[in-house]
Each structure stands twice: as C-alpha cells, then as structure tokens.
C-alpha cells in the first residue's frame, strides 16, 4: 500500500500544470469523475498492493507431487501446476518482480530521457548531435534481440539488473519527444526572462522548463511501465531471464514448456498470469488515457 | 452634422425602414449541464441602409459574440434563447433571421450579410490558391438567378480585388501564405463582397496589422462603402479607428449596449462614464499631451454579474442607487435614423470628460 | 528595497548633459541574419544612446529592426558588427563578473504577458527566484516582504492577494505588471520594454504607462521603449528621445516632442498621418495611404538602392534618392534626419536665415 500512496502523492505534486488547467480541483477528484480513469487507477492500485503485500502474508506455495495438474477445486481455486503448487498462491506472490522491474525500468528510462533530452535540446551543438546519433543506433536495433544478446552476456539474476537493462535500452524514443518539447519550450519568453535574470542554466532547464512537461512526463512514465512489463515478460517467455523464484513471467514460460495449453485442467496455469498482466496493462493504459484527457485541455471536450 | 456626413456617403439612404432591426437579443453560452452565461444580455438597435456602426468596448464585453450572433455563427454551445432579428434583403422583404433554416441561412450569409474576421490567415484554406477560394465562394451561390459561369467568376473576382487595390494577376494565382498580412486582409474583404451583400460585419479587421497597412485598409473600406453603399458593423476595441470608420457608435459593457449615438455625439460629449473613460484612455498623437487615466479594475465576469449597474465598481460617479437599478438606455438627444444619443446611466447629466493638458507644445 | 537606485550619483542629476558616460551606447551596430536565400540585414549601422533615467522610444513598423536592436542592447544577441557599451564598456568583452552585473542591470519586459511568465510558478515564486539566486533576500520572510514591496511598486495592491496567484488566474494587465515587478527585482538601471503595452486593452494601457513613468521618476530607471504606436511613444517618451526606424535603419532621431509634433522625415510624417485619431474632426483630415506612393514594405532580402525608402517616398527625386543612401544629418539643434531632400531644404532655409541676418 505504501507504494500506492507514494504514487498518488507524486501524481499530485508533479502535475501542477495539469491541476492548473482543471481549475483548482485536485487531479484525484478529476480522475474519479472519469469512469475509466478511476477504474484504471483502482486496478493498478489493487494489483500493486496485492503484489507487494502478498509475499509478506501468503506462505510460499509448496510442491505436492500428489496434486499435479489438479483442476480448480475449493482448496485450489485455480488448480495446481506441474509440481503441484497452488496457482492462486503463485499469482499472488508472482507480481512483485514484474511490478518492481516495470516501475524501476520506467523510472530509469524516464529519468535518462528527461535529463538527456532536455539538456540536448537546451544546449544543442555537439552534445545534441552525439545523443541523437546514439538514439538512432539504439532505435534501429530491434530491442528484443538486443535484450537477448545482453541477457546472454550478463547475469541477470537480480531484478535491479533487469530493470537497469530494460531501462537503459528503452529511453531513446521518449528522449526524442522530450527533446522536441524542450526545443519549443525553450523559445518561450519566460525562459528568456529567466536567462535575463541570470537564474543559472541548470535551474532554468530543470526548474523552469521541465516542470512544464510534468503531465507529459507522467503519462509517458506510465506508458514506459507497460512497455517495460512487456519487455520483461517477453524475456521470460523466451527464457532469456533466470528462471528462479515466483513470477508471472516464469509461470508463463513454465506453463508453455510443459504444454499446459493443451489440457483443460492445466489451462489456467498459463491463462492466469496472462490475465493478470493483461489486466494490469489495461489498468495502466486506462489510467494514462484519462490522465491525458485531464491534463491536456485540448483533448477535453468542453 | 452627423446626418450630413452619413447621407453624403449614400444619397439614397432609406431612413424609413431599417435594414437590420435587432430587438432584445440574448446570446447564451452553455457552460455546464445546468449552468449558462449570457454573453449578450438584451441588445436592441436599428441599423439603416448605408450606415456604419462601430461596436466598441474592452475585450470580454460581448461585442464579438454579438457580431457572431447577428450572423448566427455562434459556436456549438452558444444559442439565442430570446430576442428577434429582422433583416430587409435585396428583394425588400423582411426576413426573420432567427427563423431561417440551414439552407436558407447559408444563402443568406454571403448573399445578404457577410463577415470578415480578425486574423486573416485562419480564414483561408492554406492549400488552395486565392482564385480557387474566391471561385468556391461564388459557385455555392446563384447570381441573378443563375449559376455563375467561369468567366463571370473570374471577372467578378478581379473586379473585387481591384476594388481593394490589389492586382488580380498577381493575387489570384497566389497561395495565402505568399501574401502579406495586409494583403490577406484585403483579399478577405474582397471575398466577403463577392456576392454584393447588403450588410458587412468586420471583427477587428486591422488588429495585428501595421499602422500604414491599417491606414490602407481604412482607406479601402471608405472607398468601397462610397462605391457599393453597403451597411457596415465594425467591431473594434480601438476607439480611434471607430472615429474614422463609423458614423454611429454603440459602446458595449458586460453584454449590453450602454451608450449609442453618432460619432460626434459619442466622442465629443460622452454621457456614460464608461465611454468617457474609454475615450480618456486613448493617447492622442496630435497636439498637446493630455493627462490620461485608465479605467480602474477590469470587466466583471458575466457568470456572476452583481445586481444593479454592472459598471458601478469601476465608476467614479457611482452612488448607492447604482447598486439597485440596472439603468436602461435613456434618451439624451433624439435624432433620426437610429442616430439618437442614448446612455444607460442615472447620472449621465453629470458625466463630462474634458481633457486636461499637462505639457504645452514644444 | 535595499538602497534605491536613485541614490546612484550618476542618475541623481538628470541626464540632459550629453557629456556624461551614457548608460547604454549602441555604436554602429548591425545584425545580419544569414539565411539560405541570402543575407537579411535586420539592422544596419544603428547609433543610439540612453542616459540614466532617460526614455528612448524606438518606433517603426514590424520588420523595421526595432526588436532586433533592443535584443542586441539587452545582450540577448550579439551584433554582427559594432559595439554595445554599458556604462562605457563593451558588453561582449566584459569579464564574467562585469557581464553578470550588466545582465542583472538591464532587464527586458516582453510583449506577451501570457508567454513571459512561467505558467506553473506562482507570482511569489516568479518574483522571489531572482532575489534568492542573487542573494538579495535573507530567508523566506524577507523574500516575501521584498516581493510584496515590488508588487506595491507596480500597483498590485494589496500584494497578499496576488502573491499566491498563478498567471492563469490574472488578467493580461495584471500579468504584465508582475512581469515588470520581476524585472525590477534586481534593481535594474535600464528596462527594455518591447511592445509591453500593445497586447493590453486600450482601457488599461494608459494605467500601465503611468506606472512605468512613475518608476522612471522614482527609481531613475532608464527605458528603451519599443512600440509601433506613435501615440504611445509620445505619451510615454514625451521628455525623452525617439528614434524612428525603417528597414533596419534609424531615419529620424531626436527629442520626442520634436519628432512627433514636428516630424521631418517623410516616413515619420506618413506614420503619424496614418495614426487614427479618437476625434472625428481630426480623422477627416487624414491623407489617404498616409500620403505614400506605395503601401508595400520592400523585403529585407532585396533592399532598394540608395535610400531604402525611395520607392514609397512622396519626396522622391530621381537620380538622387535611388542612387545614394542618405546619412543622418542634424536638422535644427538636436534632431537628426536621414533624408537628402529634407537636409537640402533645411540647409537652404538655414542659409536663407543667415543671409537675412547678415543682410
């Protein structure tokens, strides 16, 4: 739950500009007015809360050779897997890594993109040119292949390493759009006014310009979570990430390899984690969509 | 005196029937599911053929909304809940503008009444040549009862462009972005006059233009009016421009007309403190330097208008009574053809605005 | 306000003596923009000075180079030729400390108060940022006090009701006053006002000008005041000087009272003639087209030969105006005009006068 409150808190502080356009009423109350946005928020908060709390409360699912591939029952609501573990328990405990890597990678991506994008646009010149070259290179290489190669090279046994890898590879697109926005924002007169007052370059970039993109950054942060989650799940499904511990990605991989698809009793082993991921992504997308509508007055129908 | 200037411009002025008669017009914007605000609150005036009426006031006083309302060009959330607008067209038959159907309304605009907006660039399609846009306008309408031929269209377009002092050979094949701001504005005026409308509404046609360009447009409008004899409503916040282009002035404040009169009456003897304040806020370029002052405060929000006179918070003549009565237009000097001087102020007899001179000529 | 600028010895005696070091001196500055379609000389060889506490108005149509000139004066762009001197020192050869001193002493008030205030900053944050950055305030309470004082200076009273507002909660006039208060925060010696009143409603323009005039009188701030509206230049710059610019050059320069009430250059005359008058009698006297031969401004990319004004000039003389470009020359005691015909006529008049005196 802590995570969830932190998240809503950042929502409120980082989007001054958005709040400005919705006339004083807080972002949260705006969100509750849009049905899909509110539903999205609830979904995301519930899944995040569940994934964070469950590992502390729910004991690990014990393998039970007598219960392999048992279908849904009152003891095992979603049945058991190929080693007789309870699928509900696995689902409850298996979200933490996925969410951690998703948020972590998105945070890293967004941070890199904002810092490099805004500085490149503000200073232009050689730094900008080099950064653009790098983004060109990174963007032309298919990400999943790059992840595969990197996954093979480095030991990715910690979620930190996974988050770092995905984060480091996915910033170029966002960096380019941040750069484009700063290029237009820095021509605005209030930036010139700040220069005339000699407020200092870093202050101008990060205190005057960047906060004006707060809503844009927030929305892209959420989109980055969905992208990072897909990348992570993709790595698991392809078996590029280490197969230790419980998580939804490993469940899918395991279910796929053991052919759970073809047995009605075991089908839930693959469908449950897929459903969780789909629901979470849906929640995130609904949230970002309605945030976009709230924060961007042009999209709002008035 | 004022009548003579007006009649000089147009010898066959009909002082009997107004070309446009507006009664208690209200323009309403829906602001929420149950909330609305009235941007125009009961405006009445009669406009006689050949006259030029200036609507003046600060931004947010409702003058542009009134202009749009007169042509029924209001945005989706705007409506006219009450009032009437009677227009006497080319066939001398009165039309109730508010009752026109979609097709009739489309014909009525352009053929009988046209509008020129501010910001000329937005009024053009950027990918069509000027000639094509002018032709499109004409093709949608009948001229003398028949579809105009290609030659007729070309002739008429060239004629109108020459009338606004543009060279048709150069302008017709150009794209909008190839023309300067002043040229674009003149093309718009030419386009609006293609179908010989009887009424032309101009909404801040010279804002954002340079002073010499503005002068050229003022000249062109004066010439056109003399030649074609159309009636004009001129919306502006620039009182000096109103003094040049209009023979009647109506000052608007908070969605109402609060003073009307001939240009001379209005500028030399304003009787509403707001008009006096506006005039006293314009620095003159000739002669001595007067002591000028702005009107304190800013226009009230139309959503939360106080009881009584809407101007009283900014008014130096305000007294307790002003909080009670929202004054109606009172006759000050009765004149013919809608040129009567009226003001909506209970203290109009005390209003005077002598200009104090601070520095003598160098 | 920590020590008011008026205590500065330089500005305490009023500027009329031209022998003191001018606050700002533009000597022969040019700005040539290189574009793919050739060079565009936005400003050519402009010489202007502003003394402490003095008003210099730059007037002209759009594209005449007045804003480019002002931006060079503010050190926002470097002239391609010529020098910009602040207190007698070339700003582009200053060391870092001197440049900071220049940067904070010369402030700019933009045209559009909607664009010049950061939409996500409250008024207090906007005004206190420079105070804090440059160590002019000691702590929060002091910042608050100084910001209130600055708001009072620009007639936003009571300041408490404005300090926590955001730009979108204020009218255009109020925002522009906040922009002025922000410019005042560093105790500037010179404020460059670039069409600062042109976006405001007519009804509040004069109040803004009166406020700026008071700042000039009370704080001794000098102004470079850019406007396309000669009536505004006249009103604000009555006791200062006015430079009329056309296609990047100064064509008439002198005391405002002379330039506006007795214009000499045919372009200045045309501009003045074109200004609409809020008086139907005066309006009727206007010459059509401002008395010009052509309404179109030539492109900067293809400037006319000789005097750049000759294709539009009512005084045009073939073989003279289209061949040589006129220099600014003194007409009368304090006014300069760049026109062959005016210079010749005034020379003749002066000669006649001297003849009649001696004879």
Task: Give the percentage of residues in beta strands of chain A.
Answer: under 5%
Uncertain segments of chain A of ≥5 residues (pLDDT<50)?
1-24
Continuous helix count of chain A = 15
Q: What is the residue-averaged pLDDT of chain C?
A: 84
What does the radius of gyration of chain C come to? 22 Å
Structural class of chain C: alpha/beta
- Characterize the largest beta sheet of chain A: strand count, sense, and whether it forms a barrel: none
What is the end-to-end distance of chain A? Answer: 35 Å
The helix/strand series of chain C, from N terminus to C terminus, equals HEEEHEEHEHHHHEHEHEEHHHEEH
What is the CATH topology of chain C?
Rossmann fold
Q: Largest interface, and how many residues on either side?
A: B-C, 45 and 49 residues
In one word, what is the shape of chain A?
elongated
Can you tell me the overall shape of chain C? globular
Structure summarized in a few sentences:
Chain A: This is Peptide ABC transporter permease. The complex is a heterotrimer of chains A (about 300), B (about 350) and C (about 350). In chain B, about 30% of the residues lie in helices and about 25% in strands.
Can you characterise this structure?
The complex is a heterotrimer of chains A (302), B (362) and C (359). Chain A is mostly helical. Chain A is built from 15 helices and no strands. Chain B is of the alpha/beta class and 362 residues long. Chain B has a domain at 1-104 and 235-354: Rossmann fold (3-Layer(aba) Sandwich). Chain B has helices at 2-9, 63-70, 102-111, 130-139, 150-163, 168-171, 181-192, 211-228, 239-245, 263-268, 273-279, and strands spanning 20-30, 36-47, 52-56, 78-88, 94-96, 113-116, 199-203, 231-236, 248-253, 256-262, 289-291, 330-333, 341-343, 356-359. In chain B, α4 crosses α5 (150-163) and α5 (150-163) crosses α7. In chain B, 49% of the residues are buried. With 359 residues, chain C is α/β, with parallel strands linked by helices. In chain C, 36% of the residues lie in helices and 20% in strands. Chain C has 13 helices and 12 strands. Chain C has helices spanning 9-12, 66-73, 96-105, 123-133, 139-153, 160-163, 172-184, 202-219, 230-236, 256-261, 266-274, 280-283, 340-358, and strands at residues 24-35, 38-50, 55-59, 81-86, 89-90, 106-109, 190-194, 222-227, 241-246, 249-255, 329-331, 335-337. In chain C, the strands form 2 sheets. Chain C has an 8-stranded mixed beta sheet with strand order 6-7-8-3-9-10-12-11, with helices on both faces. A 4-stranded antiparallel beta sheet of chain C has the order 2-1-4-5. In chain C, β7, α8 (202-219) and β8 form a beta-alpha-beta unit. In chain C, α4 (123-133) packs parallel to α7 (172-184). Chain C is globular. Chain C starts with 8 loop residues before the first helix and ends with a helix. Residues 1-18 of chain C have low confidence and may be disordered. Chains B and C meet through α8, α9, α10 and α11 of B and α8, α9, α10, α11 and α12 of C.
């Amino acid at each position: 739950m802590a995570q969830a409150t932190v998240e809503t808190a950042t929502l409120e502080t980082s989007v001054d500009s958005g709040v400005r356009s919705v006339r004083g009423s807080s972002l949260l109350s705006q969100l509750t007015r849009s049905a899909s946005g509110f539903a999205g928020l609830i979904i995301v908060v519930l899944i995040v809360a569940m994934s964070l709390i469950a590992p502390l409360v729910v004991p690990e699912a014990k393998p039970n050779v007598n219960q392999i591939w048992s279908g849904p029952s009152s003891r095992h609501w979603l049945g058991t897997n190929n080693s007789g573990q309870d699928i509900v328990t696995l689902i409850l405990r298996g979200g933490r890594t996925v969410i951690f890597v998703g948020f972590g990678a998105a945070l890293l991506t967004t941070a890199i993109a904002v810092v490099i994008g805004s500085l490149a646009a503000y200073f232009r010149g050689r730094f900008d040119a080099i950064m653009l070259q790098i983004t060109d290179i990174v963007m032309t290489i298919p990400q999943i292949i790059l992840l595969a190669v990197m996954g093979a090279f480095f030991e990715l046994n910690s979620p930190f390493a996974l988050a770092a890898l995905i984060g480091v590879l996915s910033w170029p697109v966002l960096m380019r759009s941040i750069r484009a926005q700063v290029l237009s924002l820095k021509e605005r007169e209030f930036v010139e006014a700040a220069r005339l007052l000699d407020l200092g370059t870093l202050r101008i970039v990060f205190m005057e310009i960047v906060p004006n993109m707060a809503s844009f950054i927030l929305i892209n942060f959420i989109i980055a979570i969905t992208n990072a989650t897909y990348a992570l799940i993709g790595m698991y499904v392809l078996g590029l990430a280490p197969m230790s511990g419980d998580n939804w990605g490993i469940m899918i991989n395991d279910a796929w390899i053991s052919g759970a698809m073809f047995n009605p009793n075991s089908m839930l082993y693959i469908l449950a984690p897929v459903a969780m991921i789909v629901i979470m992504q849906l929640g995130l997308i609904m949230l970002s969509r309605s945030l976009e509508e709230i924060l961007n007055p042009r999209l709002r129908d008035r | 005196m004022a009548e003579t200037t007006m009649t000089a411009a147009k010898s066959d002025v009909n002082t009997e029937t107004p070309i446009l008669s507006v009664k208690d017009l209200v323009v309403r914007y829906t602001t929420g599911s149950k909330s609305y605000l009235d941007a125009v609150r009961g405006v009445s005036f009669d406009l006689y053929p050949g006259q030029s009426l200036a609507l003046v006031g600060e931004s947010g006083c409702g003058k542009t909304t009134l202009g749009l309302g007169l042509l029924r060009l209001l945005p989706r959330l705007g409506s006219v809940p009450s009032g009437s607008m009677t227009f006497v067209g080319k066939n001398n038959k009165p039309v109730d503008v508010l009752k026109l159907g979609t097709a009739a309304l489309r014909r009525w605009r352009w053929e009988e009444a046209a509008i020129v907006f501010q910001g000329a660039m937005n009024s053009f399609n950027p990918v069509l040549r000027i000639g094509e846009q002018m032709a499109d306008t004409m093709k949608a309408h009948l001229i003398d009862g028949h579809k105009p031929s290609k030659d007729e269209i070309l002739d008429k377009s060239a004629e109108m462009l020459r009338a606004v002092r543009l060279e048709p050979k150069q302008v017709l094949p150009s794209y909008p972005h190839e023309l300067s701001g002043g040229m674009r504005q003149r093309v718009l005026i030419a386009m609006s006059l293609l179908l010989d409308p009887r009424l032309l509404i101009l909404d801040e046609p010279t804002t954002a233009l340079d002073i010499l360009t503005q002068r050229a447009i003022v000249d062109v409008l004066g010439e056109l009016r003399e030649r074609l004899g159309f009636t004009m409503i001129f919306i502006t916040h620039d009182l000096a421009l109103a003094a040049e282009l209009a023979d009647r002035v109506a000052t608007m404040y908070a969605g109402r007309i609060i003073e009307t009169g001939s240009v001379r009456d209005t500028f030399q003897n304003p009787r509403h403190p707001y008009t006096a304040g506006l005039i006293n806020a314009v620095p003159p370029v000739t002669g001595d330097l007067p002591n000028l002052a702005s009107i304190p405060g800013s226009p009230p929000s139309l959503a939360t208008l106080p009881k009584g006179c809407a101007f009283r918070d900014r008014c130096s003549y305000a007294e307790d009574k002003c909080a009670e009565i929202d004054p109606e237009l009172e006759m000050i000097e009765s004149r013919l053809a809608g040129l009567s001087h009226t003001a909506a102020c209970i203290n109009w007899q005390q209003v005077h605005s002598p200009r104090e001179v601070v520095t003598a000529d160098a | 306000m920590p020590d008011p600028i008026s205590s500065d010895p330089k500005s305490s005696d009023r500027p009329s003596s031209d022998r003191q070091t001018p606050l700002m001196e533009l000597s022969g500055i040019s700005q040539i923009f290189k574009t793919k379609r050739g060079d565009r000389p936005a400003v050519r060889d402009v010489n202007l000075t502003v003394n402490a506490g003095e008003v210099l108005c730059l007037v002209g149509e759009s594209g005449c180079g007045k804003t480019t000139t002002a931006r060079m004066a503010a050190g926002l762009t470097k002239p391609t030729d010529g020098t910009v001197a602040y207190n007698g020192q070339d700003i582009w050869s200053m060391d870092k400390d001197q440049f900071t001193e220049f940067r904070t002493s010369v402030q700019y008030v933009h045209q559009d108060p909607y664009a010049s205030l950061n939409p996500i900053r409250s008024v207090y944050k906007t005004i206190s940022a420079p105070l804090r950055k440059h160590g002019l305030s000691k702590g929060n309470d002091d910042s608050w006090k100084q910001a209130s004082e600055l708001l009072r200076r620009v007639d936003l009273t009571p300041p408490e009701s404005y300090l926590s507002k955001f730009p979108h909660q204020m009218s255009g006039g109020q925002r522009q006053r906040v922009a002025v208060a922000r410019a005042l925060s560093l105790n500037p010696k010179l404020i460059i006002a670039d069409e600062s009143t042109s976006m405001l409603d007519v009804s509040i323009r004069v109040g803004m000008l009166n406020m700026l005039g008071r700042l000039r009188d009370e704080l001794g701030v000098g102004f470079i005041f850019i406007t396309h509206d000669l009536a505004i230049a006249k009103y604000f710059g009555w006791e200062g000087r006015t430079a009329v610019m056309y296609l990047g050059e100064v064509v008439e320069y002198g005391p405002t009272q002379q330039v506006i009430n007795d214009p000499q250059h045919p372009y200045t005359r045309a501009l003045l003639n074109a200004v609409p008058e809020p008086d139907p009698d005066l309006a009727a006297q206007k010459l059509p087209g401002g008395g010009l031969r052509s309404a179109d401004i030539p492109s900067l990319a293809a400037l006319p030969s000789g005097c750049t004004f000759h294709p539009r000039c009512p005084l045009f003389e073939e073989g003279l105006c289209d061949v040589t470009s006129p220099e600014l020359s003194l007409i009368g005691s304090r006014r300069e005009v760049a026109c062959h015909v005016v210079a010749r006529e005034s020379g003749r008049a002066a000669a006649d006068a001297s003849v009649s005196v001696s004879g």
